[in-house]
Amino acid sequence: MKKIFWVGMLIVSFLILNQQISNACTNFLVTKGATIDGSTMITYAADSHTLYGELYFQPAADHPEGTMRKIYEWDTGTYLGEIPQPAHTYSVVGNMNEFQLAIGETTFGGRSELASQSGAIMDYGSLIYVTLQRAKTAREAIQVMTDLVTEFGYYSSGESFSIADPEEVWILELIGKGEGEKGAVWVAQRIPDGFISGHANQARITTFPLNDSKNCVYSKDVISFAREKGWYTGTNRDFSFSDVYAPVDFGGARFCDARVWAGFNKVSNGMENYTEYVKGNIEHDGENNFPSNRIPLWIKPDKQLSVQDVMGMMRDHFEGTELDMTQDIGAGPYQLPYRWRGLTWEVDSVEYCNERAISTQQTGFSFVAQSRSWLPDPIGGILWFGVDDAYSTCYAPMYCGITEIPECFKVGNGDLLTYSGTSAFWAFSAVANFAYLRYSDMIQDIQIIQKELEDKFVAYVPMIDKAAEELYNNKSKKQARKFITQYSVNEANNMTKRWQKLGQYLLVKYTDGNIKREKDGEFVRTETGMPASPIFAGYPEWWYEIIVKATGEHFKVSGNSH
To answer: What residue ranges are annotated as transmembrane (predicted)?
Structure first.
């Protein structure tokens, strides 16, 4: 009976946590005035234990009248139906199209009774990739996305979308209407220039302006629908989208909003004021009893950000905060900032949790999408793309106007159950998984190569921009796109080869728990050519103290130890 009880508890726990674990992603949104060069940026970490890191590509195409597009759910591949194609669709590289429009997402779930809609065709993933083929600007994307769910129904649960073009950055939050209804209720807000925002699997829009269409648009029934359901009785002015459709709880604060807080904390002072909230200590007050200590939807960073600053926001394990994953006993002797799933666990019927950081082991791919208004669209947009764990990945510049995908990122070059020697995902996964064995040492070696490559990419991009723009304006747009394609393809494939070489180096250096000695970039040999005696690094003193405290005299040496 006891075994049956615990099996049942595990099943219930899985059902409750599956939504958070399988779709736990992180986005940041950065406006023109918040960047050094005046570009806009959004980030996305696609985190799923069953997602393989590859770069999707859809070439531009013309479609005869009556052409239909089949829709398959992005997460599962389930066939949902079909929708008419427009006369022309745009080229899309990953999550960015040829007009520098970029879209990311995180799933917040929300009210469970709204998660199912029979006959719906548009899931959140298809909504992104279909829209990128049809829209040129962020505002147009919002219109396309909301029109699609109105006409064809919304198949997924609640979703937050990051949407950016070279001028504007928007957050759109949308949730279906449940069974017996069609479509969704939604609200979208433009992030004020000079500010940054973020979302991570918790709905973030609370109250919003009702008469400012330049900065906020929403479905006509977003408030009335909630009233009909009996979920809200206050004034329209005080209506909070998140608190009505996706109320924040301990998990929403600790597992989700904490990641937004961590990213903000890397670029802005004052985030310590929200520490209690992200630890799950939610305060309520006011007539509607909504949380009063939530982190704001947007903040102003202390300085304007570079693309590498934004990459840095995606590399975080709460270092330097109360939630620092390198500092508790779970990190082990080598400060490993990862905890294998599940997200929560029990001891003596008391529930505990692991932290959920921005950087996590189950990332399929992540990116920083950068849109630059001063360049022709195919050249101005760069999808800085990386696979596997964001902390140890390397972001390669994929121009949005490329016409070919690098071999290392191609769809079909391996999958999560099939190894490929030319796949970037497997090269980066191999390095990361080996590093997990002795993280505090190996991550330093990884970061040297990571910085070397990314510094080179950032330094070369202005020269590539200039040459491509010259071709685009004075010779041939086709030649310009061929040029940036060759650059992106070569850099990504060469990066993958360099990472494979890094993996070989780490294997040699750290074999068998020892550390090979090095001098001037070479492993040290004796005068006779033999390997020098390695460093027997052992464990840190504090770890030995914990062992003694836990085991008493079990390992104590007595008498003659020789």
So the answer is: none
pLDDT tens digit string along 177-227?
A: 999 999 999 999 999 999 999 999 999 999 999 999 999 999 999 999 999
Residue 250: partners with Cβ closer than 8 Å, 6 or more residues away: 280, 282
Mean pLDDT of 49-69: 97
pLDDT at position 561, please?
A: 61
Q: Could you give the C-alpha distances from 175 to 14, 211, 225, 259, in angstroms and in order?
A: 23, 22, 12, 22
Alpha-carbon 281 to chain mean position:
25
Q: What CA–CA distance (Å, rounded) separates 509 from 534? A: 9
Q: Strands of 122-267 (E only): list them.
A: 158-164, 169-176, 184-190, 196-199, 216-218
Q: Above 90 in pLDDT, residue 515?
A: yes
Residues sharing a CB contact under 8 Å with residue 264, sequence separation 6 or more, in sequence order: 196, 198, 271, 295, 299
Of the chain, the percentage scoring pLDDT greater than 70 comes to 95
pLDDT tens readout for residues 289-323: 898 899 999 999 999 999 999 999 999 999 999 99
CA angle 152, 153, 158 (to 5 degrees): 140
Task: Report the C-alpha gap between 434 and 443 in whole angstroms.
Answer: 10
**What gap in Å lies between CA 212 and CA 237, rounded to an integer?**
13
Q: Which residues pair with 535 in a beta bridge?
A: 515
The H or E element containing residue 105 is strand 102-109
120, 80 contact by CB (below 8 A): yes
3-state secondary structure 480-493: HHHHHHHHHHHHHH
Q: pLDDT at position 341, please?
A: 87
Domain ranges of the chain: 25-316, 325-356, 375-513, 514-562
Q: Buried b / exposed e across 47-71, counting CB within 10 Å, b at 16+?
A: bbeebbbbbbbbeeeeeeeeeeeeb
